[in-house]
Design brief:
Elements: H1 2-28, H2 38-41, H3 52-85, H4 91-120, H5 122-130, H6 135-139, H7 142-186
Length: 187
Amino acid sequence: HKTLAAFVSTIITLAVLVFFIFIIEHHSMIQGFGEEQEEEINAFSLYVGIDFAKIAICTIIMGAIGAIIDISLSISSSMNELFVHDPSVTKKNLFNSGLKIGRDILGTTTNTLYFAFVGGYLTLIIWFKRLSYSFGDIINSKTFCAEVISILSGGIGVAIIIPITSWISASIFLQKREKGKQYKEIK
């Protein structure tokens, strides 16, 4: 049941996150290549029949999905242990426990996401320095904006998975308890 709770929570969170990413991607126009990448792609044809907006959306989702799944499984597993050790727990108490577990996980996951993105894009930071970009040039760079949107999307996904997983896990576990009671009554 804990895997089912994590799976359903992940699907719901991804649906919300994809909606957010589509809106942000459409308005920010981060698809395609920035002028910093012109030298690298100059020899290639850009008429490859691929929608660069969809690629941008997919890369943002792929960047966030690992953390979302990890948090969801951690919360549902922990809540399952709480439920197993105290089967009489109320839905409200189980939900609040899930939120507390999620809050503890949130700090470490945020640090992990931050350092993963900074480490992965350290070359971009060095590149901007080498090109003598001003702060305004960096902020207006398509490449930089795409990375900021990736980080924000990951952060939003991580933040909204916690209450969703807590609520779904509490609901599924208590539904399991009710089915167990009904089964015992039938016998």
